[in-house]
Design a protein that fits this description.
Blueprint lengths: L5 H6 L4 H6 L18 E4 L18 H12 L7 E3 L6 H4 L5 H9 L12 H4 L11 H20 L5 E4 L20 H10 L5 E5 L6 H6 L6 E8 L23 E6 L5 H19 L3 E5 L17 H12 L5 E4 L6 H15 L37 H20 L18 H13 L55
Parallel strand pairs: 1-2, 1-3, 3-8, 4-5, 4-7, 5-6, 7-8
Helix pairs in contact: 3-12, 7-8, 10-11, 10-13, 11-12
The structure holds ligand V1D and calcium ion.
Calcium ion binds next to strand 5.
């Protein structure tokens, strides 16, 4: 593309050295030779872009049609193995979600909604998560694609799998949230855990990846890292730096809280510093990357200043480690830029340069007036993340990772096949025993106060003064009924 400049090169180089370093003979751990081309599988359902959340709602599934259209018009399909995914079954979806919640999602429609009104609050449907025609079909489509993509990686059928319709990171076990109903990411990671000892989740959506963090808050087999805007108020209100995980999962949640207007160089620098350290410490055997495009400049809901090129460099950096990779969509509300961004990232994943002039296409009017792949998106907002803030943030994260390095739970050797099942009985017991012994430290015993590491409270990272809800974190979902009310059947 010829858009790279020298300062980019200086701040953000390819990571093939790390890829070589990361070579391992551990089962379920593959590394691509640094310079070989990846085999990339692309999961797209032709109908997924036809669902509508509602006229005034910012989430527009049509962006998926636009993205796929550009991918095809650029000829990228020739470098991809393209799959029409099958829908997720109820059984697959209830591997994470509560039966009564899924029963509700299946049965409620705009026409019968009034009969279900008493459940709206409980399952958090309403303005953010409206009931729309085909809502559950939509969920089955995007979740089915993520599950199939995870299975493709497990089978060794691809090095990288892409599902731009997935990445709905806010959905909880028994509750919709932030435009998300079914958490395909959690379902995909659960699938990956059947085979891969450790899964890293990375989230570059401008919103905190709360649903995924919460689902894996108490396990050391999944590390979650979210970069997001945080001021204690911005949706979903979580993602403070000191949310680090608990029990076996302590130190395995990493939060990178950012202020408005972060620019390309700052973001890329921080992303690279943090992710290189995370990957070298945690040594994931698979990576799931949520590529929410609301972190771009000029997003309808976002307030960062990133260009499409910078967003793509994060994808490039993760790819450069050569670890099996599942790439997902997420937020993104200026849909012409979402389509540009995810098309560009598809090209990065297949190592192909694209002309900055968009090819002729039926949706050309969406891309006026410039008709380019890389419109100018930055400079709209002042960068409120100064160098001192970013440097301290980086240091604190590296300190957290050092705790993880010394933690007895992070044994990097092979996990014997017979204990690879996720949260099987033995692990449950082990966790409970550890929880008992650490009960005095548990956030739930601190009346909503969050456990601190070292002295990290007394500075920049304690500037919100909010009372976070400790109850909502560290949730376990298997074999553990929630409240009696949540485990009753739906009755209309
Ligand atoms: F502006 C709107 C118009 C109609 C309906 C909803 C919105 C809207 C904008 N921002 N809703 C929000 C956020 N919700 C609130 C609520 C007000 N409170 C009481 C809560 O601020 C939700 C933003 C969701 C972002 C979703 C996501 O981008 O992270 C995403 N990732 O993957 C899929 C979606
Ligand atoms: Ca995020």
């Amino acid at each position: 593309m010829g858009r790279r400049n020298q300062s980019d090169e200086a701040t953000f180089t390819d990571n093939s050295k790390s890829a070589r370093k990361a070579k391992s003979s551990e089962p379920g751990t593959y590394r691509l030779a640094p310079h070989s081309k990846s085999r990339v599988a692309y999961f797209h359902d032709e109908g997924v872009g036809n669902y509508h959340y509602g006229e005034r709602h910012p989430m527009k599934p049509h962006r998926l049609t636009l993205t796929n259209h550009l991918v095809l018009k650029y000829g990228l399909h020739k470098k991809l193995e393209v799959f029409q995914p099958r829908r997720a079954t109820d059984q697959e979806i209830t591997d994470f979600h509560a039966h009564d919640y899924i029963d509700f999602l299946k049965r409620v429609t705009p026409d019968n909604a009034e009969n279900f009104a008493k459940y709206f609050q409980r399952f958090n449907v309403g303005d953010d998560c409206p009931i729309f025609d085909g809502m559950y079909d939509f969920c089955q489509i995007y979740a089915g694609a993520t599950i199939e993509a995870a299975r493709k990686l497990i089978a060794g059928g691809a090095d990288i799998c892409i599902n731009w319709s997935g990445g709905l990171h806010h959905a909880k076990r028994c509750e919709a949230s932030g435009f998300c109903y079914v958490n395909d990411i959690v379902l995909g990671i659960l699938e990956l855990l059947r085979h891969f000892p450790r899964v890293l989740y990375v989230d570059i959506d401008i919103h905190h990846g709360d649903g995924v963090q919460e689902a894996f808050y108490t396990t050391d087999r999944v590390m979650t890292v979210s970069f997001h805007k945080y001021n204690g108020d911005f949706f979903p209100g979580t993602g403070h730096f000191d949310e680090i995980g608990s029990s076996l999962g302590k130190y395995y949640s990493v939060n990178v809280p950012l202020r408005d207007g972060i620019d390309d160089n700052s973001y890329i620098w921080l992303f690279r510093q943090v992710m290189e350290a995370v990957i070298n410490t945690f040594k994931p055997s698979a990576i799931v990357l949520q590529c929410g495009a609301d972190s771009l400049g000029c997003d309808r809901l976002g307030c960062f200043n990133l260009s499409i090129e910078a967003h793509g460099k994060c994808v490039q950096f993760i790819k450069s480690f050569g670890i099996p990779l599942l790439v997902l969509g997420g937020g993104g509300y200026t849909i012409r830029n979402v389509a540009r961004c995810w098309t560009y990232e598809t090209s990065i994943l297949v190592d192909t340069e694209l002309d900055n002039n968009l090819p002729d296409n039926e949706y050309r009017e969406f891309f006026k007036p410039d008709y380019q792949l890389h419109p100018h998106l930055s400079g709209r907002l002042e960068n409120q993340n100064d160098r001192a803030y970013l440097t301290r943030l980086k240091q604190r994260i590296l300190e957290q990772l050092r705790y993880l390095d010394g933690a007895p739970s992070i044994q990097m050797q092979e996990i014997p096949p017979d204990i690879q099942g996720f949260l099987e009985d033995g692990e449950d017991e082990q966790r409970e025993a550890k929880e008992d012994s650490e009960a005095h430290k548990d956030i739930r015993d601190l009346g909503g106060q969050v456990e601190v590491v070292g002295e990290w409270y007394e500075d920049d990272f304690d500037n919100d003064g909010d009372a976070r809800d400790g109850e909502s974190r560290g949730v376990l979902w298997r074999g553990e009924p929630s409240t009696p009310a949540e485990s009753t059947d739906i009755d209309v």
